[in-house]
Amino acid sequence: MDLAYSVEHEAYREQLRSFLKKNRNKSPGTGSGAMAANDWQQLLIENGYAALTVPKEYGGAGLAPDILKSHILAEEFTLAKVRPGHSGDNRIVPVLLELGTEEQKQRFIPPTVRGEMLWCQGYSEPGSGSDLASLQTRAHVDGDDFVINGQKIWTSGAKTAHMMFCLVRTEPDAPKHQGISYLLIPMGIPGMEVRPLKQMTGDSIFNEVFFTDCRVPTTEIVGSRGEGWYVANATLKHERGGLGDPNQAASRFHEVLELMKNETIDGRRLIDIPSYRDRAMALQARVFAMKFNGMRVLSHNIKNEEPGLPRWIVKLQGCELNHQIAGLAIDVMGELGILYDESPYIRDQGMWQHRYMMDLGLIIGGGTAQIQKNIIGERALGLPKEPKFDKPI
Amino acid sequence: MEFMLSEEQRMLQESVSGFLESHCPLDRVRSAADAEESMANDVHAGLCELGIPGIVIPEEFGGVGMGFLEAALVAEALGGAVAPVPFTATSTMVPVALLAAGSEAQKQNWLPKIASGEICVAVGVTEQLGRRESDGIKAKNGRLNGKAMFVLEGMEAHGYLIADSTGALHLVDADANGLSRTKLKTIDRTRSVAEISLDATPADVLPGSVSDREPLLSTIDAGRLMLAADTLGAAQAMLDQAIAYAKERRQFNRPIGSFQAVKHMCAEMAAELEPCRSLVWYAAHSVHAMPTEARLMACHAKAHLSEVGQFVARTATEVHGGMGFTDLLGLHYWFKRIGFNRQLLGAPELIREEAARVQGLVS
User: Fold this and answer.
1) How far is A236 from B324, CA to CA, in rounded Å?
2) Mean pLDDT to the nearest integer, B281-310
3) Are residues A286 and A213 in the same domain?
4) Does B133 score more than 80 pLDDT?
5) Shortest alpha-carbon distance between residue A386 and chain B (Å)
6) How far A341 CA lies from chain B's nearest CA (Å)?
């Protein structure tokens, strides 16, 4: 048990802090002197603070993986309230690096890392949610092209994306997991239609994407035909790792506490109402427990060990915790808690109601809470699987 | 940055758990409870050989001089085995009080005997956490008068650490004049709780506790932390038993653990309990490494483990179906131990209020 950082890592933190101090006015969103987002990204890459492990030949910083440095980086950017850089797209870039052809890496990774090429994910379908491998969007080969027909749903960012990485069924006669291929599809090609899907929050982050005889060259596949499920699992792993981040819960809890110290009812601060205070303290214990659980996961990752159970529970517990934090903020505000959009008297731009709904969306998305419990039960606790009653596709 | 147990800490865990597995199986727990033994002397003797009673006592006083993380690992193992032996009061609370506020002579007199396990010292501080009916201790001219309730590890003790109404701490011999003890029966038959009546009983005040509440408060912190760790071990044992049962018990031609209704109960218990381990580790580590955080962490560990422990206790019992409700299976020993830990030294609501106060959130 040693919570101190090594000399090397402390030096890294200091160096990063002075960089942030010197350059924070260049961060997008800070007013005059701010750079465009992609220029800021470029500055960060040049200094080794973005796209850390993406090789230089593909436009990254080309550094050796150092989990602790990545962790320090995330912490310090949050602390300095400066927009962090990105690694292009943490779903597609690792997949291309691992499984893409040299030509695909050259063509797709550099513009993605620069922030010029945006991606969306074409996985879920109306009939294939938790049972993703049952997906029905089909592609058949016609000459040098795949011809795609079908529909995707819950496609975040489809309106702004330039490319989609997409799962389609290319081998209809194979067993369901072996009949899928992983295609790279340019957005806006003939026969493709994107329809925004309005969410309960009023936003339209998600879309439906329809394919009618859409053609892409047969070279635009990652891995071989029928290997798409295995290619996709590499990306699902990356997505699952990010949901339920304990540091996010900690910073949101801090915001609720500030709200409770500043807001009054009948002249009484909300924190002075014992039942509210009790709920806040119960949540604070959970926030700490998840934060320390995250430190434990990190410690195993640094040593290249599988963390096991502490890792499997992060998505389930972390998303639920965020939801409860937002729920507390709404409850303690009483009637003020229902104000939304641009209502008079609104607090924090109505973000707590927005988060309360978004967090429920995240409890469902990226593998539902119930799927998470199956994973925990089967993989971590070794409980037997349910008998399968799958029909052929 | 390394937030995990060291090799030595894992070895300590294994040696204590290993000893308890072979020398303190459920049959032994049951026989101690049925015979109303105030503790299982054979189990205690074996733990003494491992140096457990002196785990946090410095070597100069005959202990092994380890930290609170090691003590928490021991408490966890004891909870896991529902071991009927004293530990929280005599091996952690009393040493903390003596080291913080005792005179050199008091330390020399008491600590080596506690470290060897030759004597056990019980703790009565409940009056400082909420007065009941007729309890309350008045100190005057080196003598104590009054009644202390819920004295932890009180029936097997050779001495008592008693807080008076001002918060000053006193050491009292069990056979001192005017002292009488009455057993309070609780749901948990693996630990003893006594009511101690004092009538002009000679007492030896810890000088550092006379005008400073800090020794009393850190004594309570230590106790809360150990009860939290005990619950962690007890709840993990219940979860392990529930998982094993869900794999083996068959209904409708399938192991019941293959039904999502049962599988999800197990997953929920694991998902709730696993972060508790990190919370207990951090709270225990903070006692030495980050003392300014220690009180808040002890509060959160005690309150949160009480909540999660209660959830695991009832859910693991349910996974066992009707068998969970029987005396035969013995699952209730863990259920009751978790219930006991929840109430002692402050139930969750009281402790959460304390957590808020520690942070300056109570005006």
Assistant:
1) 39
2) 97
3) no
4) no
5) 5
6) 31
Q: Which residues of A touch B307 (CB under 8 A)?
A: 282
ipTM of the complex: 0.97
- Give CATH superfamily name and number for B7-116: Acyl-CoA dehydrogenase/oxidase, N-terminal domain (1.10.540.10)
Considering A80, A105, A133, which residue would you say is the last residue of a domain?
A80
| Res B129 pLDDT > 90 | no
Task: Kindly state whether B264 is in contact with chain A, defined as any CB-CB distance less than 8 angstroms.
Answer: yes
User: Is A258 annotated in the active site?
Assistant: no
Distance CA A142, CA B292 (A): 70
The pLDDT score that the predictor gives to residue A247 is 85
Q: Where are the domains of chain B?
A: 7-116, 121-209, 214-358
Task: Average the pLDDT over B193-218 and give the result.
Answer: 97
**H helix or E strand, kind and range, residue A207:** strand A206-217
- Binary contact (B274, A293; C-beta < 8 A): yes
SS3 string of A253-291?
Answer: HHHHHHHHHHCEECCEEHHHCHHHHHHHHHHHHHHHHHH
Mean pLDDT score of chain A: 93
Do both A264 and A375 map to the same domain?
yes
How crowded is residue A5: how many other Cβ atoms within 10 Å of its Cβ?
15
Token pair in block for residue B239: 């979860």
- Per the structure, the count of domains in chain A is 3
Which residues are registered as beta bridge partners of B147? Answer: B136, B197
Quick one: pLDDT at residue B124?
96
The active-site residue out of A208, A220, A239, A255 is A239
